[in-house]
Amino acid sequence: MKEQQPIPFIDLGAQYETVEQPLEAAVLSVLRSQQFILGPTVKNFESACEAYCNVPFAMGVSSGTDALLIALMALGIGPGDEVIVPDFSFFATVGSVVRVGATPVFVDIDPATFNMDPAAVSAAITSATKAVIPVHLFGQCADMTSIVAIARKHGIFVIEDAAQAIGASCEAGNAGAIGDIGCFSFFPTKNLGGIGDGGLVTCQDPNLYNRLIQLRNHGSSPKYNHVLVGGNFRLDAIQAAALSVKLNYLDSWTKARREHASYYSASLQGIDGIELPTEVAGNKHVYHQYVIKVPGRRDELRKRLSDAGIGTEIYYPKPLHKQPCFQNAPDDHCPQAQHASESVLALPIFPELTKEQLDRICNAISELF
Ligand SMILES: *Cc1c(COP(=O)(O)O)cnc(C)c1O
Asked: Which pLDDT does position 2 carry in this prediction?
């Protein structure tokens, strides 16, 4: 038998090969212009994102984390305010809440989608609740119809953490175009990845947009007149140039991700001991990750795949409330988030995967069960 190449969890080099020429030309042109901060390259990228996400305003920022932070700042959220977050997400979702001085309130997830459970959101609302942050985890929108209805009823803001979900949609609309503010990340491994850090905020309201624009640049308006205390949350022109090129490919990459997901689901269906991800009717899932649940045998399967040269990841190994920086939350706080953290395994889903690689992964999984 011939020696088999390992299958990495993600292969950014494979994507680079497909965009190398236009990407290098775009970066070089910024270099030659010597205009590195904001300017027309960033503006053009923002306009392209407004069209892509079907939202009136998009503003480039320095990272997905900063998108969340500036969103909370723009909505005036701070000490004494409670913000509802899912217990199962990347740390930035809750970290940004704590950084503005507000109190995170963790709610459990729907085990079928890994997304925030709307019933748990309802139950968590108090007179101090100011906002809720649904995360469109792994590329599928949270139940935005229910969450928006709850938020309207109680007069609280909705900040979408769409870091993993550019191009996703649901019955309520496109990811990032539904709530008060949408937050995106262009971390290199995201579905639309930069050549460094970057992010985006989207919104519908022109006044909120103006406030975001001010906050992005130390609250200055006009220059050297500071009407708010903001920060440096700017997106670099080099990132905007690279992202503008890659945005042209995003639909084809999403299509490939969705095809890989269907292929996995068809091949792995019926294997006892594995739960496959579900795509809710009416949702367009963009499969930032393809995450299976392997209750009781997750680590064994991960080791088996690793021995076969196949990369996998665990998103996320701990519910947020169990992070050491949040010492006092009770242990049985969010049982579904806890269960997910113990059973999830993300399989390779990058667009350039081949059928042969997918077959090898599926075969290696079925061999164990
Ligand atoms: C990646 C990510 C972020 C943070 O984005 P950065 O660009 O890495 O700062 C926030 N939330 C979620 C759900 C993410 O996956």
From this structure: 52
Q: What is the pTM of this model?
A: 0.97
CATH of 250-368 among 3.40.640.10, 2.60.40.3080, 3.90.1150.10, 3.40.50.720:
3.90.1150.10
Measured by CA distance, the residue closest to atom 3 of ligand 1 is 64
Domain formed by 13-107+115-247, architecture: 3-Layer(aba) Sandwich (3.40)
- Contact assessment for residue 7 and residue 313, using Cβ atoms and an 8 Å cutoff: no
- Encoded amino acid at 37, one letter: I
Pair 61, 235: CB distance under 8 Å? yes
> β-strands 290-293, 344-347: how paired?
antiparallel
Q: Please tell me the predicted confidence (pLDDT) of residue 4.
A: 83
What is the whole-number distance in angstroms between the Cα of residue 368 and the centre of ligand 1? Answer: 33
For the purposes of burial, counting CB atoms within 10 Å of the CB of 222, is it exposed (0-12), middle (13-18) or buried (19 or more)? exposed
CA of 92 to the centre of ligand 1 (A): 6
Beta bridge partners of 160: 182
- Atom 2 of ligand 1 has which residue's CA nearest to it? 163
The ligand 1 atom at the shortest distance from the C-alpha of residue 135 is 13
Low-confidence ranges of the chain (pLDDT < 50): 1
pLDDT at 97: 98
